Amino acid sequence: MENRPVGVLLREWRERRRLSQLELSIQADISTRHLSFVETGRSRPTSAMILRLTEQLDVPLRERNALLLAGGYAPAYPEGRLDGPQLKEVRASLRQVLAGHEPYPAVVVDRRWDMLDANAPIARLIEGVAAHLLEPPVNVLRLSLHPDGLAPRIVNLAEWRAHLLSRLERQVAATGAADLRELLEELRGYPGGGEAPPKRAQDVVVPFRIRVGNAELRFFSITAVFGSPLDVTVSELAIESFFPADEATSAALRRL
C-alpha cells in the first residue's frame, strides 16, 4: 500500500464504500473539486485531511496508519502488544469477561480470527481435533470448518459454514484485506456438509450445534468489541461468547 499514491488509495476506499465524490465531500465538509484533486494527485492532502476522510469512510485504524504513511506522514494510532504493559488493563478486562462467562465457552480473536485467549470450556469443545490445527496461531474459522477440526462434530455443518463464510465475506468487502481474502478462499475449499437449509420464519439466530461426547450442545453467539478504540490492536479485538440455546445445553455445560 505504501508504494501507491494516497489519493488512489482514498479513491479505492470511497468506491469500496459505494460513495460518490459528492456524497463523501458533503460528509467530510470539503469541496468536491478539492476531493477530486486529492484523488488524482493534483493536491497533496494534509494529515488532518486524510484522517477526516478515513473517519467518514470508516477505514480501520491499521489502514488509516497505512494511508498516512502513503501520504508522507507518521502513523496517528499506536499499536500495542496485548501482552505488553500498555494494554495491561485491556488484557485484565478480557480475562474478566472470559472468566465471568463460564461455564459457557468464549474466545478472544483478532482481525484474522486468530485465537488470542479463551476460557476453560473452549478446551472441552475442541478436544480431539488434529494437533496441527492447534499450533499457534490457532485460527478459529479454520478450526471450525477444517475436516480435521470441529467440522465432523458440527451437526448443522452446512448452515454454520454458510454463516461463517458470509461473515468473512462481509469483512473482506469492508476491509479489502488480502490475508482475509486468502483465508476465505481456503475455507471455501473445505467440504461443507451439503447445501444450507432455508431459513425458517421462526428462526431468530443461526444456531451452533455440536456433539460433545454423547450430547448435542446447542448455542447462539454474541460478538463484542471495544467501543471507540484508539489503539490498532484494541480495535481489532473481538470476544465471541457462546450461550446455551436450550436448558439441556445449559445443564450439560454445568455438569462438564
Describe the fold and architecture:
By secondary structure, the protein is α+β, with helices and mostly antiparallel strands. It contains twelve helices and five strands. The chain has two domains: 6-70, 434 Repressor (Amino-terminal Domain) (Orthogonal Bundle), CATH 1.10.260.40; 85-255, 2-Layer Sandwich (Beta-Lactamase). It has a five-stranded antiparallel sheet. A hairpin with a 5-residue loop joins strand 1 (106-109) and strand 2 (115-118). It is elongated and about 65 Å long. The termini are far apart. The model has no long low-confidence stretch (mean pLDDT 94). GO terms for molecular function: DNA binding.
Domain count: 2
Query: What is the H/E string?
Result: HHHHHHEEHHHHEEHEH
The CATH class label of the largest domain is Alpha Beta
The computed structural class is alpha+beta
Kindly provide the radius of gyration, computed on alpha-carbon positions and rounded to a whole number of angstroms. 21 Å
Distance between the termini: 48 Å
| Largest beta-sheet characterization | 5 strands, antiparallel
Low-confidence stretches: none
Protein name: Transcriptional regulator
Organism: Dactylosporangium sucinum
GO molecular function, one term: DNA binding
